[in-house]
Amino acid sequence: VRKAVIQCLFCASLTFGIWAALFLIYMHYNHVSNPQKRSQEPVSAWSLEQNVQQKIIHDSEQISKPHVTVKDEPEKLRPFDFNYTDPEFLDGFSKYGFNTIISRSVGFERDVPDTRHKMCLQKHYSVHLPTASVIICFHNEEFNALLRTLSSVVNLTPHNFLEEIILVDDMSEFDDLKEKLDYHLEIFRGKVKLIRNKEREGLIRARLIGASRASGDVLVFLDSHCEVNRGWLEPLLYAITKDPKMVVCPLIDVIDETTLEYKPSPVVRGAFDWNLQFKWDNVFSYEMDGPDGPIKPIRSPVMAGGIFAIYRHYFNEIGQYDKGMDLWGGENLELSLRIWMCGGQLFTIPCSRVGHISKKDSKNHEISKAVTRNYLRLVHVWLDEYKEQFFLRRPSLKFTTYGNISERVELRKRLGCKSFQWYLDTVFPELEVSVDS
């Protein structure tokens, strides 16, 4: 019996020792592997909201910037079967110009594919670049799209270059852009300045209001339905440091209005026709010669309008926007002509990528009237004798009123601007002139 007891105790001790060893091995593995796992997981700016708000309470003068760790591989949107007769689907397109069901499911932030050319990844920029004030104006924007714009800028812009984000609400009417927006902006306190216009100003004058409150060295204008990509700002700032009269645009990637899929854009330049309709144009192969090849800055006759960067003092020196223009439309062409004809340069920077929702806009009578007025102001100030090329195609507008342009004509004289003939010869010779038969 004694021998049996000793054997039982020996077996029990052995079993306990094996289990104890296994437990210690498990604890060691868990201690080592879990921090690694946690360090690989992206930190959401929105998940930091509670921590940031606590920091606001304890130290209102020192707010650390929320940051997202960008994953190597972006999440792909789940396949979605659209019911194109769904009232909610149709209402989203009617109100906002894109699929709000998907926008709501995506939420306030996401990773998008890095669409830069691989050569861009080898570029390194100084830590002493100028600071930027990012100006975003909105009127009745879809809530999630607006918050994605903001969070992408905060999360993918180096802290030392981002002076501020100036958010201008141009008299929005929707409820979720009031108290709800104020609440969600708390996470960005210290970086986002919200201005609410007391009356509808339109995009052009709203941008001027935002610019007047900016303190950064460079003004960066963004639309309110964008998502900036990795390394988007540094190439723009670097180009401006080389020439303070250089105005630069990112390459604008497409965010599909139905699926919200982020799609890379080829290297293109801005152009227009004699109807003053903006269009994208192919880049000549010789413009991409040299060691930089596909990432070389591209001369662009005009900008698309919503997304560009300009040295703040140069923006003021060159005359800002034409305050006599209404709402939006044509201001991008007018500013582009002024930049080129008055001693500046306009370039697209392929290493800077910004996604933009290609909204399905339905122009109402008010907007169509504003666009017509804006075009006429541009034509009579900047096209010289070539304004007849416009009226050849739009004869009904020849005697339409467009307001007082004396201040803009005087600005052109004061800046010593060149003729539109010079612009055609030097910048955009591909714009062919029609002969009136």
TrEMBL record:
Chain ranges of the Glycosyltransferase 2-like domain: 133-315
GO biological process assignments: spermatid development
Membrane topology summary: Single-pass type II membrane protein
Transmembrane portions of the chain: 7-29
Gene3D superfamilies in alphabetical order: Spore Coat Polysaccharide Biosynthesis Protein SpsA, Chain A
Claim: Manganese is one of the keywords in the record: yes
Cofactors demanded by this protein: Mn(2+)
Gene Ontology CC annotation, any one: Golgi apparatus
Family: Belongs to the glycosyltransferase 2 family. GalNAc-T subfamily.
The protein's name in its UniProt record: Polypeptide N-acetylgalactosaminyltransferase like 5
Organism (species): Propithecus coquereli (Coquerel's sifaka)
Name of encoding gene: GALNTL5
